[in-house]
Amino acid sequence: MQSDEIRNLSNFINEDFTKVVELILGSKGRVIITGIGKSAIIAQKIVATMNSTGTPAVFMHAADAIHGDLGTILKDDVVICISKSGNTPEIKVLVPLIKNFKNALIAMTGNPKSYLGEHADYTLQTTVTKEACPNNLAPTTSTSAQLVMGDALAVTLLEIRGFSSKDFAKYHPGGALGKALYLRVSDITGSNLKPEVQPETPMKTVIVEISKNMLGVTAVVHNEKVVGIITDGDLRRMLSQYDDITNLKAEDIMTHNPKTIDNDAMAVDALKLLESNSISQIISTSNEKYQGVVHLHNLIKEGIL
């Protein structure tokens, strides 16, 4: 089974793997990863993983390399060449050229005794006994093994470098993942309108304030500090309790001591507070001063939820 073949890769995490990790960590250059066919596709994925986890990497197609792209390789770069057999014509042409450049060459191959394996400085072995393909022809298990070995290398480098979630955010600024790591409450409140009334504000003005700011809520503020909150739900309850609202003021229906969050907090923490308290809006403050409102819809729009 393919899973058994992948599990067997742990037997190939050996001294050469350790030396490859040390070589890359000590290098002043980048990791150039090359291959041909399906191995080239795997190489591109490993490059993407390394770049996103703090190890600068560049993909170089083996066929293009021998037709002008060798200039991709710089003096201090480390080269990883991926090939199941290690004996394809393009690899046999490419390997001596890399060796002439004096760059360290790492083979990722299923055949350590191949031309590539014998001429590389170090070998990351990805041997499998059988492809998942019923004809044992299409690269399936072998490419999975290459992918897993590449991930193992990238994650090992990540851990040794102490690559943190903050570092990760630098390389993933887009999408939900990046926003969860860097988006702050202030980024949202800075874009929102800022509904605000005083405790003595007449009810008609409160209703207008909630309506025009389109957040379904207003903060009740006194001397820049939040003393209460009024939501559209409070307005509905008010209408069911009072026949005449002419003399009502904000302080008469507001909820005292509302939930708040620091304006410098992460947006994802605001989401946690909304969920844990079963509310749709939360007031943002800074040094106890009112800053604005974060609505659940803001977080949905940003892709946090």
A few lines on this structure:
The chain has helices spanning 2-7, 15-26, 38-52, 62-65, 89-100, 115-119, 141-161, 165-171, 175-182, 185-189, 203-213, 232-241, 250-253, 267-277, 296-301; strands at 31-35, 57-61, 78-83, 105-109, 122-125, 196-197, 217-222, 225-231, 255-256, 260-262, 281-286, 289-295. By secondary structure, it is an alpha/beta fold.
What can you tell me about this protein's structure?
This protein is an alpha/beta fold and 305 residues long. The protein has 2 domains: 2-163, Glucose-6-phosphate isomerase like protein, domain 1 (Rossmann fold, 3-Layer(aba) Sandwich); 182-301, CBS-domain. Helix content is 45%, strand content 19%. The chain is built from 15 helices and 12 strands. The protein has helices spanning 2-7, 15-26, 38-52, 62-65, 89-100, 115-119, 141-161, 165-171, 175-182, 185-189, 203-213, 232-241, 250-253, 267-277, 296-301, and strands spanning 31-35, 57-61, 78-83, 105-109, 122-125, 196-197, 217-222, 225-231, 255-256, 260-262, 281-286, 289-295. The strands form 3 sheets. Strands 2-1-3-4-5 form a 5-stranded parallel β-sheet, with helices on both faces. Strands 6-7-8-9 form a 4-stranded mixed β-sheet. Helix 6 links the parallel strand 4 (105-109) and strand 5 (122-125). Helix 2 (15-26) packs across helix 7 (141-161), helix 3 (38-52) runs parallel beside helix 7 and helix 8 (165-171) crosses helix 9. The longest helix is centred in the middle third of the chain and has 21 residues, at 141-161. The two termini are 38 Å apart. The model has no long low-confidence stretch (mean pLDDT 92).
